[in-house]
Design a protein that fits this description.
By secondary structure, the protein is mainly beta. The protein has one helix at about 25-35, and strands at about 1-5, 10-15, 20-25, 40-45, 50, 55-60, 70, 75-80, 90, 105-110, 125. The chain is globular and about 40 Å long.
């Protein structure tokens, strides 16, 4: 499966199944995306390959949490953490070119969900803060 930023400068491939997918309602994701939450998944580093755009990867490291990485040219958000060194790569599902083959299994940071974007009643587990490590 392939993925990219908005302009296509950063391109990557996923060659292993995602281990987990989730909805994150934290304020970092809200400010980063301009929406009420983000959707992403984690894949083992050996199942991830950066195809192009290493020089375009820019990031912001908030005072708490992991760095948020985006394309310096178009601003498209693609990863969080360090996709070249972390054991698991966190990928934004909106950056994928196809169905990831997995659905989010929980909501985290629900205590931060804004009133205008309430957490849906979808039966998934909810965690007021970070979910337990998976």
């Amino acid at each position: 499966m392939s993925g990219r930023c908005l302009c296509g400068g950063i391109r990557f491939e996923i060659t292993a199944p995602f281990t987990v997918a989730l909805y994150c309602h934290c304020t970092h994701c809200q400010h980063r995306t301009g929406t009420g939450y983000s959707v992403g998944g984690r894949v083992p580093r050996d199942g991830f390959r950066l195809v192009a755009g290493r020089d375009l990867i820019s990031g912001y490291a908030p005072p708490s949490g992991v760095p948020k990485l985006f394309c310096a040219r178009c601003g498209g958000h693609v990863f969080s953490g360090d996709p070249l060194n972390d054991d698991l790569v966190s990928v934004r599902f909106g950056a994928l070119d196809a169905d990831p083959g997995i659905r989010p299994s929980y909501h985290q940071f629900t205590a931060s969900a804004p009133a205008w974007s309430p957490v849906p009643d979808d039966g998934l587990p909810r965690y007021p803060r970070a979910a337990p490590a998976r």
